[in-house]
């Protein structure tokens, strides 16, 4: 490989996949995938959960070996028997779940596995110097190479992961949903970094659910559906969103929010959920709001503004220093989740997999975990009845694939979210708290979840939704609270706000 | 790989939902298929036990394949078996307890002190039973409080208990062996039902109760949830701290029962009882198939694990083989079992 | 999935290799030295017609003792084996040593199930093994209790004991005679595990014998029968007492550590009396080049004697040198003092620590 041909015109083809097939026992995960990545482009990979994106990038990264088809690297057919082989060739993959050693420093993480050393002794000064150079190249010379990795923000950790990729001679960088853990400012910054790399001639494969991001950063798009490429090399600029959705789902849908059934909060009746003067020192201050039966209240703000923390404190999962929470007028004990649950609250947490689900357990058990008492007599469970009840719910929520004895791990993000929702439906909760309910959920399932939340509200449940997607908050909620630096800076009916106003509030703390 | 098994996840398209095959069913070899499912895992243990019995019968003939010998194995297995069943709960719940042997010793000493025995003779022999179980539960309570509410790592909290409980046992007994002279106690634990001694029956009863508790009750379900994902369990409304506490108390009670069994068997309480039971119990639980990381437990596996180790001991004794060889083999069995288990865990991670 | 299998296979291979390696190493590091206990042989060869050593009906003897984690204890099992081997009519079943009473009980149960002719039992804990010994006796199997006594006399047909009190007395008397006339001599004592009855007996005998000649124990420390414990206890003792005339150390196994501590401290103003009677202690006495001047024997041949007694019982024989037609109920062994003068006599039956 030569280095002087970077950025030449016409763009050089770096990586080409032809007719890749990957078979797992019982499942044809990839069924003929083509992909062509050029130097100096951002190539977006689109597809719903289960379309085969993860399998595809694992194949590129040398984690999986394709059963059929060929891989061409710089014009030559190659095989990457191990991830190391792919890295050595110049393909770096940054997975959604960042892999780093939290207790090592930034520089140590960057050079992990190819430490800067001499005669077996680490050259720390050199490593730190080179780390800073790499980080500066990414526009983040401000990240000290001696910081402990675990102490960094998720965004900074991502930058370090990219620096690690660049510490090898990387020609193709694969980013798997890089924006999932970032707020808008950080995403903007990420885009700056990506553009810088592209300008240097690196080819970037960018995977994301967010169509608007792809529109902003992408050059060309390849769409996967059911393990097949349904479109490849589409120019971003020429392809309308509706066309992309049609390609991904096989039918055209709009990004629709369910109709708001106008049920103005009844002023005479007491609200279901009352939060008063809630505060946790150093995290959020003086948060007060109420949610009536049938009302959906949206909480939005930047990541780190304190939205999730407020929700956790309301739920008792976090102990506030001041303030109180009442459900149906009864005051809850601070910092006690089981009291909150007994009072009728339910939470769908942000980190579904690590906080919400027992991944290796059956769907039915995940649904009934909060209402086991209902299926038990003197502590003994009636499993048949339990399973029937879970089946009814999964059927009505259309959880796919069917079968409540299946481990939750095997479900897609959207269906997993439905399982968590089903848990609180089963419990017949009075107050439902949703933290980023559609994160990692594909377009189709999104609409279903919106519908479900609206149905619950219509049935009289008080709902609080935390989301960083302003569109979602505005579309779903009756009322919107904007949180900034631990304070509620604005509260208004959703109908009175538009996206740019909320954006200004989020960023600046005041309406334009 | 992740996405390959999740199936089509677009409910709006209403595609006919053909169930993808269950992900754990796929396997590369019949062996893997056997060890992959819960039943398969136990089957593997049964096969191992049968092989061991085959070896016993081949090398010791009738001396092995004999009802009396079977009872000898069960009597040896009883005390450590009861401890292992309690340990299964703690490990399934994501914990570990290194102090079981020490709790057993303390329990055996406390309920055989002159004071307790006098009381047992004056009031009722069951005073000793109550004392043993109360001491076990008390130690478990201390462990549980430290771990669940004090935030001490289980390994450390129970390590401290391991040292302290045996120390207290030595102080109480003045490091002497305390001889039990309570006729009612001897009569009860020495009794036989259908030719089987009470301690062996107790082991069977505890095993059955443990199975029901783990598999058929909310307590067991919560144990699995707490061990599998404590955060998710907490956010689902389970009182994780209280549950953790109860797991250690449960194990303490099991230690108390095991202490009674050892007292009945030896007619003594001693601070040297239950030496290294923690390792035997953990080993039995782990080869039984309970995940050391928590979240999955099997009582049947644990019982089989205990039986495998005790049968191994018995076969070695019958053949005049050295305990050192036995220890070597025991180590090998543990390693193989854990390798299989890791492979299983990896597979479920990747499915 | 394929990679996983490969890794697993690899791992298993590694584990297997490691296992083989261990076994191989064990084979290479065999520590066999030819046993010096040849004189334990019962001499069936050329046994006089009509003598007790004449071959009789084959008897099966079950043998169980605590773990051989200590030279004396190892010698117990070894010498029992040597004696059994010397008889053509004895089949010895040795259940490997254990310090776990539950397991030791199970071993005795196995002997009962097997219907052995006699059981030789050195219990880890005399009291704890009493019920099962009683059971064996009730099943008609004579039990020969060695060293650590049961708490029920009916649990054993014969009890063979060392003499712990006598050991103390012997050690005390020897020190008295060596220090004759020094009424202000400093005498120190390094005991074994302090809470064991046998240690208490030894110390009691020692104190009483010293009192006879107007001496007393000025400094007393306790170790735990291990080399490490002996070293630690002796270091402390030497630190505490700057000037010593005589030390009695209860146990020659821990004595290895005691001697190391004395060496390290560079002290030689006193003489040391050992206990139990290990071969290397006796060799040191024979060489006469150190502070160790004598040791008091606590015979490690108790179990060997027990095997002989068990054979006699099983074959319905009496002890030839006694008039009595039955084997006696109790045999207590003598605790002689070994010095340079008589060490030749004892060296052969001493145990290697």
From TrEMBL, chain B:
A GO CC term attached to the entry: plasma membrane
Q: Which PANTHER family match?
A: ABC TRANSPORTER PERMEASE PROTEIN YPHD-RELATED-RELATED, RIBOSE IMPORT PERMEASE PROTEIN RBSC
The record's keywords, sorted A to Z, are: Cell membrane, Membrane, Transmembrane, Transmembrane helix
- Region Disordered, as annotated, extends over 1-31
What subcellular compartments does it reside in? Cell membrane
Key word Transmembrane helix present? yes
> Has the keyword Membrane been applied to this entry?
yes
Q: Which residue ranges does UniProt annotate as crossing the membrane?
A: 43-61, 73-92, 98-116, 128-149, 155-172, 193-214, 245-264, 276-293
Q: What is this protein called?
A: ABC transporter permease
Q: Which InterPro entries match?
A: ABC_transp_permease
Q: How does it sit in the membrane?
A: Multi-pass membrane protein
Q: Please give the chief subcellular localization of this protein.
A: membrane
What's a Gene Ontology MF term here? Answer: transmembrane transporter activity
Q: Which domain of life is it from?
A: Bacteria
From TrEMBL, chain C:
Q: Which residues form the Periplasmic binding protein domain?
A: 61-317
Q: Which UniProt keywords apply?
A: Signal
- Which Gene Ontology cellular component annotation is one that this UniProt entry carries? cell envelope
Q: Does the keyword Signal apply?
A: yes
- Recorded GO terms, molecular function? carbohydrate binding
Question: Which InterPro entries does the UniProt record give?
Answer: Peripla_BP_I (IPR028082), SBP_2_dom (IPR025997)
- Predominant location category: other
- Residues annotated as signal peptide: 1-26
Q: Which Pfam families match?
A: Peripla_BP_4
Write out the annotated subcellular location: Cell envelope
Q: Where is this region: Disordered?
A: 33-56
The UniProt entry, under PANTHER family, shows: D-ALLOSE-BINDING PERIPLASMIC PROTEIN-RELATED (PTHR46847)
Which family does the record claim for this protein?
Answer: Belongs to the bacterial solute-binding protein 2 family.
Protein name (record): Substrate-binding domain-containing protein
What is the organism of origin for this protein? Nocardioides zeae
Supply the source organism's classification.
Bacteria, Bacillati, Actinomycetota, Actinomycetes, Propionibacteriales
């Amino acid at each position: 490989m030569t280095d002087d041909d970077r950025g030449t015109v016409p763009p050089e083809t770096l990586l080409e996949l032809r007719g890749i097939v990957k078979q797992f026992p019982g499942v044809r995960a990839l069924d003929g995938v083509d992909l062509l990545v050029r130097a100096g482009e951002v190539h977006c990979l689109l597809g719903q959960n289960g379309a085969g994106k993860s399998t595809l990038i694992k194949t590129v990264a040398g984690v999986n070996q394709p059963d059929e088809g060929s891989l061409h690297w710089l014009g030559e057919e190659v095989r990457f028997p191990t991830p190391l082989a792919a890295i050595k060739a110049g393909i770096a993959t940054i997975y959604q779940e960042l892999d780093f050693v939290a207790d090592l420093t930034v520089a140590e993480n960057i050079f992990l596995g190819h430490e800067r050393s001499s005669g077996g002794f680490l050259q720390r000064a050199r490593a730190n110097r080179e780390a800073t150079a790499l980080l500066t190249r990414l526009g983040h010379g401000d990240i000290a190479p001696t910081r402990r990795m675990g102490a960094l923000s998720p965004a900074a950790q991502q930058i370090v992961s990219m620096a690690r990729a660049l510490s090898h001679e990387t020609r193709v960088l694969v980013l798997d949903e890089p924006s999932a853990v970032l707020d808008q400012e950080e995403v903007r910054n990420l885009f700056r970094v990506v553009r810088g790399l592209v300008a240097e001639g690196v080819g970037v494969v960018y995977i994301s659910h967010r169509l608007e991001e792809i529109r902003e950063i992408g050059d060309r798009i390849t769409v996967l559906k059911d393990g097949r490429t349904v479109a490849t090399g589409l120019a971003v600029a020429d392809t309308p969103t509706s066309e992309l959705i049609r390609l991904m789902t096989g039918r055209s849908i709009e990004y629709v929010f369910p109709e708001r059934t106008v049920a103005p909060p009844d002023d005479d009746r007491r609200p279901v959920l009352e939060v008063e003067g809630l505060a946790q020192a150093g995290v959020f201050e003086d948060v007060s709001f109420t949610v009536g039966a049938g009302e959906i209240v949206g909480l939005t703000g930047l990541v780190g503004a304190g939205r999730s923390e407020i929700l956790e404190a309301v739920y008792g999962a976090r102990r506030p220093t001041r303030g109180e929470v009442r459900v149906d007028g009864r005051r809850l004990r601070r910092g006690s989740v089981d009291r909150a649950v007994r009072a009728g609250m339910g939470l769908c947490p942000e980190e579904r997999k690590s906080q919400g689900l027992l991944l290796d357990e059956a769907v039915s058990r995940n649904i009934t975990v909060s209402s086991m008492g209902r299926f038990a007599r003197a502590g003994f469970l009636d499993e048949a009845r339990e399973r029937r009840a879970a089946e009814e719910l999964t059927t009505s929520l259309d959880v796919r694939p069917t079968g409540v004895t299946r481990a939750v791990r095997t479900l897609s993000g959207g269906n997993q979210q439905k399982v968590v929702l089903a848990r609180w439906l089963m419990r017949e909760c009075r107050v439902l708290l949703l933290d980023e309910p559609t994160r990692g959920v594909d377009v189709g399932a999104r609409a279903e979840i919106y519908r479900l939340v609206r149905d619950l509200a219509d049935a009289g449940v008080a709902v609080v939704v935390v989301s960083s997607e302003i569109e979602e908050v505005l579309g779903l909620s009756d009322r919107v609270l904007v949180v900034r630096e631990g304070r509620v800076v604005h509260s208004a009916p959703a109908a009175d706000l538009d996206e740019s106003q909320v954006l200004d509030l989020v960023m600046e703390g005041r309406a334009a | 790989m992740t996405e390959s098994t999740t199936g089509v996840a677009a409910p709006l398209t209403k595609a006919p939902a053909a169930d993808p095959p269950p992900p754990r069913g796929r396997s590369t070899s019949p062996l893997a298929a056997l060890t992959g499912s819960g039943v398969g895992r136990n089957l593997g243990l049964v096969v191992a036990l049968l092989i061991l019995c085959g070896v016993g019968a081949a090398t010791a003939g009738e001396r092995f394949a004999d009802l009396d010998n079977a009872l000898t194995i069960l009597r040896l297995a009883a005390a450590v078996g009861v401890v292992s069943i309690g340990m299964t709960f703690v490990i399934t719940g994501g914990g570990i307890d290194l102090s079981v042997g020490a709790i057993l010793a303390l329990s055996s000493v406390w309920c055989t002190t002159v004071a307790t025995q006098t009381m047992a003779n004056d009031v009722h022999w069951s005073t000793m039973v109550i004392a043993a179980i109360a001491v076990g539960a008390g130690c478990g309570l201390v462990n549980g409080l430290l771990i669940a509410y004090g935030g001490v790592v289980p390994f450390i909290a129970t390590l401290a208990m391991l040292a302290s409980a045996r120390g207290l046992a030595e102080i109480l007994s003045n490091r002497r062996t305390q001889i039990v002279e309570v006729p009612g106690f001897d009569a009860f634990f020495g009794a036989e039902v259908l030719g089987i001694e009470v301690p062996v029956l107790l082991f069977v009863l505890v095993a059955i109760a443990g199975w029901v508790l783990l598999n058929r009750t909310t307590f067991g379900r919560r144990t699995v949830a707490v061990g599998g994902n404590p955060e998710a369990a907490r956010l689902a409304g389970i009182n994780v701290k209280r549950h953790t506490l109860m797991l250690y108390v449960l194990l303490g009670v099991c230690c108390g029962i095991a202490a009674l069994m050892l007292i009945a068997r030896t007619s003594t309480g001693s601070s040297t009882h239950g030496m290294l039971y923690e390792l035997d119990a953990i080993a039995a639980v782990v080869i039984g198939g309970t995940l050391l990381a928590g979240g999955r437990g099997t009582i049947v596996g644990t019982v089989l694990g205990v039986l495998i180790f005790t049968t191994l001991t018995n076969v070695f004794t019958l053949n005049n083989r050295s305990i050192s060889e036995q220890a070597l083999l025991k180590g090998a069995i543990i390693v193989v079992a854990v390798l299989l288990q890791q492979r299983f865990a990896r597979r479920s991670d990747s499915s | 999935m394929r990679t996983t299998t490969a890794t697993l296979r690899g791992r298993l291979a590694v584990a297997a290799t490691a296992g083989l390696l261990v076994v191989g190493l064990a084979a290479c590091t065999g520590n066999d030295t030819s046993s010096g206990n040849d004189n334990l042989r019962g001499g069936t060869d050329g046994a006089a017609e009509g003598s007790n050593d004449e071959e009789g009906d084959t008897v099966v003897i079950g043998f169980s003792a605590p773990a051989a984690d200590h030279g004396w204890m190892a010698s117990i099992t070894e010498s029992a084996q040597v004696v059994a081997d010397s008889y053509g009519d004895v089949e010895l079943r040795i259940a490997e040593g254990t310090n776990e009473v539950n397991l030791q009980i199970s071993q005795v149960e196995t002997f009962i199930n097997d219907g052995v002719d006699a059981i030789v039992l050195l219990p880890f804990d005399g009291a704890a093994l009493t019920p099962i010994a009683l059971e064996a006796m009730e099943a008609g199997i004579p039990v020969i209790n060695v060293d650590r006594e049961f708490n029920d006399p009916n649990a054993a047909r014969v009890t063979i004991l060392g003499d712990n009190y006598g050991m103390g007395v012997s050690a005390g008397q020897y020190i008295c005679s060596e220090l004759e006339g020094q009424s202000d001599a400093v005498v120190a004592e390094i005991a074994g595990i302090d809470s064991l009855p046998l240690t208490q007996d030894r110390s009691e005998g020692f104190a009483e014998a010293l009192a006879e000649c107007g001496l007393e124990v000025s400094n007393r420390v306790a170790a735990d029968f291990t080399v490490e414990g002996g070293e630690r206890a002796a270091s402390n003792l030497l630190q505490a007492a700057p000037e010593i005339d005589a030390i009695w150390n209860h146990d020659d196994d821990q004595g290895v550590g005691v001697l190391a501590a004395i060496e390290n401290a560079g002290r030689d103003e006193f003489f040391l009396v050992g206990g139990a009677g290990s071969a290397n202690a006796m060799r040191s006495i024979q060489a006469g080049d150190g502070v160790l001047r004598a040791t008091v024997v606590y015979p490690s041949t108790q179990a060997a004697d027990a095997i002989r007694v068990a054979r006699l019982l099983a074959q319905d024989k009496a002890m030839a040198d006694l008039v009595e037609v039955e084997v006696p109920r109790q045999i207590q062994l003598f605790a002689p003092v070994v010095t340079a003068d008589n060490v030749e006599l004892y060296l052969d039956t001493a145990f290697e620590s």
